[in-house]
Every structure is written in structure tokens, then in C-alpha cells.
């Protein structure tokens, strides 16, 4: 019988040639763009598998999440695996993802994820020596799957999702490589909608389990009163001043938000905007734009914030807490075609949320939040539409209570995703689990 690895191994050379051509053509422009925007360069040698090796472990699970959101979603899995006696190695791809992983799991348990060159993946596996691989959401890279198949390393997709847009691309991929997904022994997906899309790619139904969204297991519905009071005191905001917190904003969004806030202050004269750009290297541009619309303060300079119309967040890791301050929250990456960022952080405080029309990355959750009265979606990316949305929500009586009640219903509907995911994982790791117990 010909193994999946043997039947697909010629493909790795084609993939390597394709990746190499991509690096040669796109690499210089990518590097120049990062330098121009003053974004930190990832450790390239590590991305080619030249990482610090790990000592051998009787049962090591490699958990990989591409960036911050996936790393945070993996927290429950990592804790559960460690409780079972497994050694866990966490990897990520982005600079922010790696920083988040080191903060939560300890630097000694974190490594840079390899690029999908066959030599990079093999070098990484040789230095890490995992007995299983758990991939978060849709990190299905061909050479990684081939290398794990060759090494008899079981692979699981956790918190899996497949958007309609991604499905179109994956259909083209599986036409060229029909056996590509065979090394993935279990697909633990967020919803039946995602399960149906994976089945349409030829994944056998018995290899798919609907487990829910792991991100819900990392957040709980919180009381915002104490934190909101603390943040208002910190910034010197009066109790009567309504606050809009705009998180993870991108270029092209700040101008719309700033224009809308200035216009909305005709109705709400004390209205304040707390603006948290997605990338801190954009701070000079954001500060310049904000200064053109009124008095500006930096979060790290509290004395500047008391009389500021706009407070710009110049730190990492505080946005989730700052949402407690909000009477209304905007989630970025939605006024421009990025696809949207974390909706759960403002929802966790029961804050009314609004977004632009581009919510493809968070479509399913967004639809739930809209249905439950937590979130509103603009139809246009314009200053006028944004102003109307802000005024409409702030003028609604009881909008905060409705948002909190709706968020509670959404959170309750998604409880238990971690236990279901771990049960799905046990189905593909029985031998590993038994061995870890013996060594415990």
C-alpha cells in the first residue's frame, strides 16, 4: 500500500520551488515595506528551522497558532494537555503572536514556527521532536502535513474554521493535491457551517467534530462597573462623558472615526474617543491625524487625557481592559477590507458594539451578536454613516442592558467548547495519553 507521504512526496519539490520563487519575487518588497513602516523583522533564521533544540520528552505536543488570536485561543488546550502530563511546545508566526505566547506560556516553551519549506519543517521537527501536532483554525500547510505524515506524527486541527472565501481557494488546492488533508486525523471545528465546508473538500464525516469556538473558553462575561470607574479616574474623564473605544484600527479607519466623533460631539458635547491602533509603529501618523480633530492625549501620559477629545493607546495588552470604559465599542479592520478583529473582548463587558461592513473574518460570531442585539454593522465606510451609528446607539434607552443580556446568551450558547475539543483530541492520541500517564 502506498502511503500518503509516498504518493505526495514529489509535490514537496514543486512546493519548495514555488515558495522559493515567491521569496525571490516578493521578499524584497516585503522587507522594504516592513522597514518603511518600522515594523520589527521576524527572526528569519528561526523561521527556517534554526531554533534552539528542546530536550527529549516522553510525550510532547506541538501547538501552533499563527498570531495573537490563535495563541490566546490555545490557552485552554495547553493547560489541559499539561494537566494530562504532556510537555507542550507552542509556536507562532508573527512577532506579536510570539510575544503573546512567551507572556502566557514562558519563553522556554515557545519557538518560532517554521516556514513551509520542506527543509525548514524537517529541521524544526528534528529539534523539537513532537509526538503530535495541534494546528489552530486553518494553519494547514502542505509541507508541514507531509513531514508529519512521514514521521507518523498525528495532526489535529483545533478551533477549525473555513470561510466561504477560503473554501473557494481550498477547492482549487485539493484539485491539485487531493490527498493533502489526509494527514489531519481530526478536524475539531467551530460550527456545523464550517464542518459542512470541510466535508465539501472530501474530508470524511467521521474525521470532523463540531466542538464550538475555543475563544469563548478564554473569556467570561464581566462586570464593568469597577474597571470602568478605575479607568475613568486614571484618565480624568467625568462620569457624564460618553466614551467610544475603538480597538485594533487600521489605516483608513482613524480618519472616519475621528470625523464622526467630532460631528457626534454636536449632540454629545463631552464625547471622548479612546483610539487603539492595531500596529503601534503607526502611532506618529495616528497622532497627527487625531491632532487635526481636537485635543489629543497619550494613554501613558494620563495628565494629557483629562481634557483630551481623543486618547491614543500607545501600549500593548491593555485594549481588553479599556473596553470596560466604553459606552460604545468599535472593532477595527472592518471599515477597510481587512475582515475584522476580536469581537469577544468588548462583548465580554456587555458593551454595545459597532463595526464597518468588512467582517468576513468574524462573520459567524458577528451574525450571532447582531441577532442578539449586541452588535450593529454599518453598510458604508463613511464619516456620515459612522456618525449616525454613534448617535443612534448612544441615544437608545437601555442599549447597554440589551447588549449585556444578548452577550450573556451568546456566551452561554458556546460554553463547553474546550471539553469537547479535548475529547476529540483524545480520539487521536490514545497511545500518547497512556504513555504520559505512565510517566506522570
Task: Describe the 3D structure.
This protein folds into 2 domains: 42-212 and 416-439, Rossmann fold, CATH 3.40.50.11720; 225-413, Glycogen Phosphorylase B (Rossmann fold, 3-Layer(aba) Sandwich). 47% of the residues lie in helices and 14% in strands. It is built from 20 helices and 14 strands. The protein has a 7-stranded parallel β-sheet with strand order 3-2-1-4-5-6-7, sandwiched between helices. The protein has a 7-stranded parallel β-sheet with strand order 10-11-9-8-12-13-14. α1 (4-36) crosses α7 and α11 (254-264) packs across α17 (383-395). The protein is globular and about 65 Å long. Mean pLDDT is 90; it is low at 1-7 and 434-440.
Q: Could you give the topology of this structure?
A:
Elements: H1 4-36, H2 44-47, E1 60-64, H3 68-73, H4 75-83, E2 87-92, H5 95-105, E3 110-112, H6 118-128, E4 132-136, H7 142-150, E5 155-160, H8 164-176, E6 184-189, H9 192-200, E7 208-210, H10 225-235, E8 243-249, H11 254-264, E9 272-277, H12 283-291, E10 296-298, H13 302-305, E11 310-312, H14 319-322, E12 328-331, H15 344-347, E13 353-355, H16 363-371, E14 375-377, H17 383-395, H18 399-413, H19 417-428, H20 430-439
Parallel strand pairs: 1-2, 1-4, 2-3, 4-5, 5-6, 6-7, 8-9, 8-12, 9-11, 10-11, 12-13, 13-14
Helix pairs in contact: 1-7, 6-7, 11-17
